[in-house]
Amino acid sequence: MRTTRKSSRPRGRTAAVAITAVAALGVSLLAGCSKDSDEPAKAGGSEGDGKGKITLTVGTFGVFGYKQAGLYEEYEKANPNITIKENVIERNDAYYPQLLTHLAAGSGLSDIQAIEVGNINEIVSTQAAKFEDLSKAAGVEKSNYLDWKWAQASTSDGKTIGLGTDIGPMAICYRTDLFKKAGLPTDRAEVGKLWAGDWSKYLDAGKTYTENAPKGTTFLDSSAGLYQAISNSASERYYDSSGKVIYKTSPSVKEAWDLAMEATTGKMTAKLKLFDKAWDQGFANGRFASLPCPSWMLGYIQEKAGDAGKGKWDVAAAPKPANWGGSFVGVPSAGKNKEEAVKLAAWLTAPAQQAKVFAKQASFPSAPGAYDLPEVKDAKHEYFNNAPIGQIFADAAKSIPTLVIGPKDQQIYTAITDVGILQVEQQGKSPAQGWAAAEKEIDNALDQ
C-alpha cells in the first residue's frame, strides 16, 4: 500500500505515510511464483496502424506499486504503441484538492486518476458525471472485486467510476517477547482466540497485560488506532445508508469510543498520536506490545522497529473483520485517451496484476481472485516470524462489511481522534469533555 497519505490507507495523513513506508521498504514477502495467464490486453492503435504513439498518464498520490512491480513496462512491451507516464504527488492532502480543481476546470487531468477511499464518496456523489462508467468496460468483471469495494465506487443508478486497487484488511500485530513476559500466549492462533469475535475481549487481554506489563511498556500504542479499527468493523458509522449524519447516535461509534476510553483510563495505551515522531520511536523502543494492524502497517512497523524488532513481531487475526485504507483508479471523461485509459485501468486492477503488486509492495488486493494465486496465498512475512500474511489478510478481507462512507467522513474521524481522544489521552480531560470537544469540532465542519 503506498505510503504518504494521511489517514486513509490510513485515511488522509496516515494513509499516505503508511503507503509510502511500505513502498520504501520493499517488504520481504516469501511468496511463490505463479504462471500468469493474464497477459496485457493489446491496446487499440498499436504499432504500425499509422496513428502514432500514445502516452497514457497515470496520476497517483504516494506509491501505488505499478511501476515498482514492473507493470507499466509489461504493458508497454505488449503494446509498443503505448507509453505510460506516472504523475505522482506524495500526499493525498495535496493531491486531492488538485484533482477537484482539474475536474472543475475540465483540464489538467491525467488519463487515469487515483482516488483515495476517504474521498470516494464525495467523488461518487458530486463528480460521477465527470468520470467514465467502468462497469461495462471491456476487461472489467464485477465478480473480480470484493462486493463492498465495488459498491463504494458505484452510484445509485449503477455507474461505477473507480476500480478498486488495494484494501487494508485488519489484523493485530503484537510483540511475542512482551506478550510472553506478561503471561500471555505467543502462538498466533492462540493469541487470536483470546479476542475472537469481540473487541472488548482484546481489552480483556490488555488488562492482563497491564497487570503484568514489563517495565516501561503498555499494551497498546494509542486509543485512536483502536477507535479506528473498531468503528471500521461496522456497516454504518458516521452516516446511514440514506446519507444522514448519525455519528451522535451510531452504535458503532459509541462502542468504539467507549472501548477507546476504557483503554485510555485503564492505562493500557502509550498515549501516542498516530504517525507522529514519538509514535515512530515507540516501535523502535519497544514501548507497546500490540496495535490494530491493517495490511499496509506491516511495512511501516518493519521500517520503524528496524533490525532489532525482527522476529519479535507477529500477526494474529483481529477480533472482527474491518478495513482501514485502500484506493481506486478512475478515468476522467475530459481525458485525451479515454478508450486506452479504460483498458489500462482494467488491466492494472485485474487479479493477476494486483497479486504482483502485493508481492512487491504488500498492497493487499481488492480482487478476491488474487487470493488463490501463489503470490498471495503462499505469502509469508519473514520479519513477522514468517506469519502467513496472505492467508490472514485474505480471510479478513472476505468478511469485511460494506461500510457506508459519507462526504465528511474524514473530518468526523479526525475530530474524534485528533481532538476528542487526544484531549483525554494527552491532556487529562474526562471522556465526556473529550467527546464534547470532538462534537463541537464536527458540528463546525458540518456547518451545524
UniProtKB/TrEMBL annotation:
Keywords: Signal. The keyword Signal applies. It holds the Pfam family SBP_bac_8. Residues 429-448 are annotated as: Disordered. Residues 1-31 form the signal peptide. Residues 438-448 have a biased composition (Basic and acidic residues). This is Cellobiose-binding protein. It comes from Actinacidiphila glaucinigra.
